[in-house]
Amino acid sequence: MKAGQKVTITATSDVKDSVHVHGYDKTLDLPPGEAASVSFVADVKGVFEVETHETELLVAKLAVT
């Protein structure tokens, strides 16, 4: 994606957890069984990991050019 674009991350988990977007300091709290979203403008260039906190799983990589 190009810098300056709006990003929306939506996730659902079967257990209580949270998702963190590295480089943007955005955290998405995930209640069990409910969808949750966070939106922000991707204004920092690079490749950033999106991972869960409790289970430390890599969910995605956000690439901003």
Structure description:
It is a single chain. The protein has one domain. The protein is 0% helix and 58% strand. It has strands spanning 5-11, 17-21, 26-30, 36-42, 46-52, 58-64. The model has no long low-confidence stretch (mean pLDDT 94).
Helix content: under 10%
String of helices and strands = EEEEEE
Mean pLDDT, to the nearest integer, reads 94
Major sheet: 4 strands, antiparallel
Major beta sheet, strand line-up:
3-2-5-6
Layout of secondary structure:
Elements: E1 5-11, E2 17-21, E3 26-30, E4 36-42, E5 46-52, E6 58-64
Antiparallel strand pairs: 1-4, 2-3, 2-5, 5-6
Explain briefly what this protein structure is.
It contains no helices and six strands. It is mainly beta.
List keywords for this structure.
elongated, mainly beta, four-stranded antiparallel β-sheet, two-stranded antiparallel ribbon, 65 residues, 6 strands
